[in-house]
## 1
Amino acid sequence: QLQLVESGGGLVQPGGSLRLSCAASGFTLDNYAIGWFRQAPGKEREGVSCISNSGGSTYYADSVKGRFTISRDNAKNTVFLQMNSLKPEDTAVYYCAAVLKVPTVQAMCYIIPRSGYWGQGTQVTVSS
């Protein structure tokens, strides 16, 4: 079965950190660009950070730039999102997506992919 599974979400206080993981099973991520997206209640899904298949290109939304870091370990077939200095407005369900071909990683984050693979999401709640 081809799937992506996110993990690492949870409840954290403002200023805290979490590390999300996106693991693939049934296929290898080597040729896929990966994106992290989030959706808060009542809001549209938005791109948070995206990374090229080689890891050489990354994109961050302005709202997370300097606080979040995306990385990938193709040997482990996993992509990570390190989230530091978390804010209440970061509260959302976080999803990862794998897309075989993207024009740029920025485009992948701007235009929510309709193709590729999606995970089921992991809840991140930032609250005191």
## 2
Amino acid sequence: QLQLVESGGALVQPGGSLRLSCAASGFTLDYYAIGWFRQAPGKEREGVSCISRNPSITKYADFVEGRFTISRDNAKNTVYLQMNSLKPEDTAIYYCAAVYQKTWFRICVVDESDFGSWGQGTQVTVSS
């Protein structure tokens, strides 16, 4: 059974950093693109970033503004989201999701409709 588990969420002060992890079980991540999404209280879920099978293909939402970095370690079956210079508006539940990619050079899209398997989320709170 395909399963994704997010971790690494915490309470952090503005300007701080966190690294979120998305660990896969029941399947190998090698053939999947992974996306990170978030949902703040009272708001719709939005895309944050994605990484294709080819780790050199990554996408970011405009609001990331160079603060976040997505990466993958297929040996550990895990994708990471390094978040720096965190702002209070980054407060949200962060989810990862997976989509199978048939070809190596397929790009990923930071759109939840592209993704079919989701984790349960991890809470990130940015507050002083």
## 3
Amino acid sequence: QLQLVESGGGLVQPGESLTLSCVVTGFTLDYLHIGWFRRAPGKGREGLASINKSGVVTNYADSVNDRFTISRDNAKNTVYLQMNSLKPDDTAVYYCVALRHGYAALRTAVESQKDLTGDSGSWGQGTQVTVSS
């Protein structure tokens, strides 16, 4: 059974960095498109970054484009989100999602900074990131 587990969240000060990890089990990462989303307090879930199964194609939401980097290590079945220059507005629960098909839908969610539509994705439980001085 496909499962995703996020880790790496925590409390950091503005301007600091964090790297989140998303470990995939029960399925080979090579065949999965992966996205990172977040849900801030009182807000809906929004797309941040995506990477296709080959790792060649990525896209980012405008709000994080110059600060966050998504990458994958298929040998470790792990996808990462490197987050630099963190701001208090980045405080949220961060989730990764895996899709076997439909990378276009994932890209659209990230470009529009909206939630992924439909129920074709497998989600992790989330990891809390808090940016505060």
## 4
Amino acid sequence: QVQLVESGGGLVLPGGSLRLSCTGSGSQFSTLGINWYREKRDFVASIGPTGGASYASSLKGRFTISRDNAKNSVYLQMNSLKFEDTGMYYCNNGGMSGTWGQGTQVTVSS
């Protein structure tokens, strides 16, 4: 079973940017679809093994998901951050009943 570790969260001003990383263990990571959720509840984005991506419609192009299979990593570039983007961000494989990382906190505050 893959293990996932998130990093890159922090405190940022409204309008700022952050890049979250999700690093996975094992040789099968490149074959996995990876999702990002906020608070283990709100879908943010997902990426398939070959890079096909989907996003929550509410994000309106502010976030970009990408992956580097050579580094067993998936990234979430977050731009034009808003107060309501605040929360714990988790990467996930397999949906709600699948594998979760420990999360990384994003706080948007002035």
